[in-house]
Every structure is written in structure tokens, then in C-alpha cells.
Amino acid sequence: MNYTIFYAKLIGLYMLIMSVGMFINSKNFRILIVESATNTSLNMFAGVISLLFGLTIVLTHPLWQGWPMIITIIGYLAVLKGIVRVCFTNSVASMVHQFRSIKIYYFISVLCLLLGIILLYYGYRFSI
To answer: From 73's CA, which of 37, 54, 59, 61 has a CA 20 to 30 Å away?
Structure first.
């Protein structure tokens, strides 16, 4: 199994499960998002994990053609998210308060669901 198929399945399953969880437990997820952003230690720890995850993808998956480009972009976004959380910890709390909007929350939830389905489709389509 190559990296593209592995990442498509891994990220696809992760996004699918998380988006379903975000729909089922929307109130608790919105509270978690705001509380974790205001907790400096937890915010920095999440940034370190995001940075490691993103760098792993960026270094092992530099593909910029076709559908695998989605995985590379997700890797770069994870790196960016990690850098912001680690370097600008205090600013993250104010940015996250915008995420409390129910419209933005559900938009991101639907986006994650669709991205998860797309990645699973390609991951399982090309692994057969």
C-alpha cells in the first residue's frame, strides 16, 4: 500500500468519524473547541500534534497532481495550524470565538464529512 492510499483511508476515516461525532454531539464539541483554545497548555499540545501530523504528510507525500493533491494540501494546512497554535497561542482563543457561530460550525462539519467521503472513495477505489 502506498502513502497516498494509506493517507486517503486514514484521513478519510478520521474526518468521517469526527464529522458524525460533531453532528451528534454538537453542543459538547463547541464547548470543547472554545475551552481547549483558551487553555494555553492544551492549545500548545494540540499545536505540537498538528505540526507532527502535518510534517509527516508534507515530507512523505509531495504530490501536486490529481486527487492526491487533497492529501498534500491537508498536510500543509495541518502544519500551518500547528505553527499558529504553537507560535501564536494567545491569538488562537480570540480566533476560535468566531467558530462558536452555529453556521460556521456546521459548515466545517459538512466540509469534513464531504472530504472524508471523497478520500474514502479514492482510497478504497484505487486499493482494489
So the answer is: 37
Longest dimension (CA), the chain: 46
**Cα–Cα distance for residue pair 84/87, rounded to 1 Å:** 5
Which helix (H) or strand (E) segment holds residue 57: the answer is helix 40-60
Task: Give all strands (DSSP E) within 6-116, no chain letters.
Answer: none
Residue 63, φ and ψ in degrees, nearest 5: -105, 130
* pTM reported for the whole predicted model: 0.89
Cell 497561542 sits on residue: 89
Give residue-wise pLDDT tens across range 13-23. 999 999 999 99
Quote the cell numbers at residue 66: 490529481
- Rounded Cα distance between 51 and 67, Å, is 23
At 2, list the grid cell.
502506498
Domain containing 38 equals 3-125
Q: What is the pLDDT of residue 81?
A: 93
Report the percentage of the chain scoring pLDDT > 90: 64
Residue 99 grid coordinates:
467558530
Q: Quick one: which of 68, 76, 77 has its CA closest to 6?
A: 68
